[in-house]
Write a structure and sequence with these properties.
Keywords: Chaperone
CATH architecture of the largest domain: Up-down Bundle
Domain J: 5-77
Function: Co-chaperone involved in the maturation of iron-sulfur cluster-containing proteins. Seems to help targeting proteins to be folded toward HscA.
Organism: Pseudomonas benzenivorans
Low-confidence stretches: none
Family: Belongs to the HscB family.
Largest sheet: none
CATH topology of the largest domain: Monooxygenase
Mean pLDDT: 89
Length: 173
Amino acid sequence: MGSPCHFALFDLQPSFRLDIDDLAARYRELARSVHPDRFADASEREQRMALERSASLNEAYQTLRHAPQRARYLLALSGPELPLEVTVQDPGFLMQQMHWREELEELQDSADLAGVDTFKRRLKVAQDELNESFASCWDDPARREEAERLMRRMQFLDKLAHEVRQLEERLDD
């Protein structure tokens, strides 16, 4: 993990609950101050440092603005590095995943745009519930396993939401 901490770059305390609009405003402000164009007349070393600061800022912003990546980052700050792909030891959620995938395939086969919209709203509710659950347990060492499980669920739902957006675009064409 590069230093300083992603949260420190934005002068924030590590937390899952963030005001994303505030984060975006801070990002724009900081991005202007470290933008490489501002260092066009500076020494090569200063230009390189500006480029590195700009890259760090971009990485931090991309990580913190997406809930699953923010969750993963918070867990990595407080414990051992997490493997990227882990078989979910979570039979109930595995069944839920299969059900969602089948439902999405049916919506795709029937080109049901209204159905996709309803599916997307239900998915958003599930994501919000997971985010709330994660927010309440991520910093409790006794609930670390639960937080990791929730983070993996968040990653799956994020991927599913991306697939839903792609399907919407295909059906809109």
